[in-house]
Amino acid sequence: MNVPRWLLRHRIKVEPYLGDSAYGPQYGPPVEDVPALVAETIRTVRDREGREVTSTAQIIAEPGLNCPAESRITLPDGRTTRAISVAQHTAPGLPVPQSTEVSAE
Predict the structure, then answer these.
(1) How far apart are CA 27 and CA 60, in angstroms?
(2) Do residues 89 and 100 touch, judged by C-beta distance below 8 A?
(3) Is 7 in a helix, a strand, or coil?
(4) Which of 8, 39, 56, 59 has a Cα-to-Cα distance from 45 of 20 to 30 A?
(5) What does CATH list as the number for 5-104?
(6) Could you tell me which residues come within 8 angstroms of residue 78 by beta carbon, excluding any fewer than 6 positions away?
């Protein structure tokens, strides 16, 4: 069971991080109007290297969202941010929804 679409009231834009080049970070083609639930709260999270950093937005989206750490995200208010960490929540056999959780700068 996936997170119900009616809960995903916001729309975001995701530009998946592809890696670094001689000219800086490279991003894939933007994916517009991604359904999501955005909470702009301040939390301490760990980045992919284990350092404690501050997250100012948490995003819940459908499972399988292509948004690796360092991806560029445009929030509903137009603010552009960067994905700090991404977690795929699954619970096979349990009556809880599957989702993707993104902590953003």
Answers:
(1) 21
(2) yes
(3) helix
(4) 8
(5) 2.40.10
(6) none
Name the amino acid, one letter, at 87. Answer: A
Q: Are 14 and 71 in contact (CB under 8 A)?
A: yes
| pTM of the predicted protein model | 0.90
The confidence score (pLDDT) of residue 86 equals 94
User: Which tokens is 15 given?
Assistant: 């530009």
Maximum Cα interatomic distance, the chain, rounded to a whole number of Å: 47
Alpha carbons 62 and 99: distance in angstroms, whole number? 5
| Rounded CA separation 74/82 (Å) | 9
Between these two residues, 94 and 11, which has the higher pLDDT value?
11
**So what's the pLDDT on residue 93?**
83
CA-CA distance, 45 to 4, in Å (whole number)?
Answer: 26
